[in-house]
Task: structure prediction
Amino acid sequence: MAQSNSYETVLVESFMPAKFSGKRGRVHIRPIAGGKYSPDLSVECAKRLSENYPVGTKFKLQAKLTDREGGGEYLYSSFQWPYEVVE
Result:
């Protein structure tokens, strides 16, 4: 299990996936390319990031790498935590 116990600052962005994977919503959040984490990772965070800002908006938030049993790795940030709009 690839799991980190500490949260760190991560840059993420909203995007519209080419194919919908069964996840809710048309706009998703992913890590920014060139950072520590692959843009292929999903990010679980506050829905307002994907609902209240234009697609392509970049954010800075606190997250940690975690995984679900049988579901693969993803970045987790509590929906209650503050975030910063970068662009």
